């Protein structure tokens, strides 16, 4: 086993560390990976028979236009002293620290208070990639709690033909999770497609589309926006293919996408960027700050008020927006949480 330590230049989003970790974990030969969002430093334990250091760095740089710098610390890249629970820490002998009885009692009291709050308010963790500010990773799955996690549920506006808009970015692990859920809903309830619309987060600066996870994500956002607007009957087929491994051009032909038409849309600012600007204007209108964010009939709602990141929960959210619920609302869908990031399965 080998260890490589590095620093990543160009991380600007609150959830990039999770995206990098998940992409590296999918690589054969990677045993352990940790990227610290605060310092932008990372460490990878790997099997050099299956993957080499340059391939690891290349994978990181391809995610969002990042630049990787190797950290030379004068230590052997062997892993005898590696803490596998937190591989970026090398074990050091430290003198024991004495803890007074008063401190012990205080620590116990703090734990009891936290446990009380947990069981009182629940654990409704709204996992999102934040578009601004830094977000610390708080669990093995890097779960993040939304600002409104302890607010009372918002009653959905109702009408005869509700529309659930999901605001995402195409390389966000949790945005991909929501797209996977929506694709599953449509697969099982085709008529629900008319009640679902995916919109994208980002901005246009000096005629160029931008996104929180870098240029590669921004360009894929634009591609998906063009498909949604000009080839809507191919949108879900393409997205369902692309979300498996992150392939783009390789998913066009198998799903019947008109590639020349797609390229023309992306390169024509009067088409692609114009469509994108409409989405981005709505970002401001609805105060969209995290991927994913749901808007039902013009009002933000939380999927966690309906059961979480599952197909059945999102179906229930859609149905809550009807004046008179259609028959498909009685259809039972899976209550399992969908996979985050790229995945070949639900």
UniProtKB/TrEMBL annotation:
Residues 139-152 have a biased composition (Low complexity). Residues 127-157 are annotated as: Disordered. Residues 127-138 have a biased composition (Polar residues). One of its GO terms (cellular component) is extracellular region. Gene3D superfamilies: 3.30.70.100, Glutaredoxin. SUPFAM superfamilies: HMA, heavy metal-associated domain (SSF55008), Thioredoxin-like (SSF52833). The keyword Secreted applies. Keywords: Glycoprotein, Metal-binding, Secreted, Signal. InterPro entries: HMA_dom, HMA_dom_sf, Interferon-induced_GILT, Thioredoxin-like_sf. The keyword Signal applies. It comes from the Bacteria. GO terms for molecular function: metal ion binding; oxidoreductase activity, acting on a sulfur group of donors, disulfide as acceptor. It is found in: Secreted. Residues 2-68 form the HMA domain. Pfam families: GILT (PF03227), HMA (PF00403). This is HMA domain-containing protein. It comes from Candidatus Staskawiczbacteria bacterium RIFCSPLOWO2_12_FULL_37_15.
């Amino acid at each position: 086993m080998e260890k490589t330590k590095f620093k990543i230049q160009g991380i600007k989003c609150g959830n990039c560390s999770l995206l990098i970790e998940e992409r590296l974990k999918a690589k054969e030969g990677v045993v352990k990976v940790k990227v610290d969002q605060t310092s932008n430093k990372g460490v990878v334990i790997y099997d050099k028979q299956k993957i080499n250091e340059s391939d690891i760095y290349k994978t990181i740089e391809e995610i969002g236009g990042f630049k990787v710098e190797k950290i030379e610390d004068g230590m052997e890249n062997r892993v005898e002293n590696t803490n596998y629970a937190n591989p970026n820490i090398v074990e050091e002998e430290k003198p024991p620290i004495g803890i007074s009885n008063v401190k012990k009692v205080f620590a116990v009291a703090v734990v009891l208070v936290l446990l009380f709050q947990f069981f009182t308010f629940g654990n409704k963790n709204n996992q999102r990639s934040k578009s601004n500010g830094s977000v610390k990773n708080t669990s093995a799955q890097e779960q993040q709690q939304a600002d409104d996690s302890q607010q009372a549920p918002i009653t959905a506006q109702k009408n005869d033909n509700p529309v659930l808009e999901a605001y995402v970015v195409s390389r966000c692990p949790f945005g991909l999770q929501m797209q996977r859920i929506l694709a599953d809903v449509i697969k099982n309830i085709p008529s629900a497609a008319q009640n679902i619309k995916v919109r994208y987060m980002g901005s246009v600066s000096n005629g160029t589309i931008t996104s929180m996870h870098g240029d590669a994500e921004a360009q894929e956002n634009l591609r998906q926006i063009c498909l949604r607007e000009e080839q809507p009957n191919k949108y879900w087929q393409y997205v369902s293919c692309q979300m498996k491994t992150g392939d783009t051009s390789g998913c066009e032909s198998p799903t019947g996408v008109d590639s020349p038409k797609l390229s023309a849309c992306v390169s024509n600012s009067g088409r692609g960027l114009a469509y994108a600007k409409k989405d981005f204007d709505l970002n401001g209108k609805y105060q969209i700050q995290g991927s994913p964010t749901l808007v039902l009939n013009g009002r933000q709602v939380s999927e966690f008020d309906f059961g979480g990141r599952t197909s059945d929960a999102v179906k229930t959210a859609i149905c809550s927006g009807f004046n008179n619920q259609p028959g498909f609302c009685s259809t039972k869908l899976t209550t399992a949480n969908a996979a985050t990031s790229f995945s070949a399965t639900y």
